[in-house]
Amino acid sequence: HTPPLELAAAAGTPTLQKCLAEMKVNTRRYARKQVQWLRNRILRVPQLDIVRLDANDLSVWDQTVCAPALDAIQLVLNGQKLPAVAERPPEPPSLLAWRKHPCELCGRTLNGDVEWQAHLGSKGHKVAVSKRAAGVQG
Predict the structure, then answer these.
(1) Per-residue pLDDT for the chain (138 aa), expressed as one digit of tens each?
(2) How far apart are the C-alpha atoms of 101 and 104, rounded to whole Å?
(3) Cα distance between residue 58 and residue 123, in whole Å
(4) Distance between CA atoms of 123 and 113, rounded to whole angstroms?
(5) Crossing angle of helices 14-37/112-120, nearest 10°?
(6) What is the helix (H) or strand (E) element at residue 109, kind and residue range?
(7) Which run of H or of E encompasses 37?
(8) What is the DSSP letter of 110?
(9) What is the CA radius of gyration of the chain?
């Protein structure tokens, strides 16, 4: 299922495509900052009970988020101890796939696959590709 804005971007203007790509880059950057903040502040508090919920797949939200959350709430309300969790929850796969992409043509280093794809589609990169192609052929 493709979101409506992405359908419009695929058939529409380059400006909308650029905005969507930039929004995705910024969203992933913000998600990384949130994970870092949680790791540095929340997970280091030993007395804090943590319940891990997997919200990666919205199609199974009731089974992976809603039901476990309600179970945890019921345990706390009944005065019972929450089950122990692993020391550090695993990061989502999208955050583990982090790597830097150098663009030798533009002299830039892009952070992550999303930024790299956005850069490859950018006007500046396309102009640099055209200039290099004209220089090689001419």
Answers:
(1) 666 666 665 666 678 778 888 999 999 899 889 888 887 887 777 777 778 888 888 899 999 899 999 999 999 899 988 887 655 555 555 554 567 888 988 988 888 888 888 899 899 999 999 888 888 654
(2) 9
(3) 35
(4) 18
(5) 160
(6) strand 108-111
(7) helix 14-37
(8) E
(9) 22
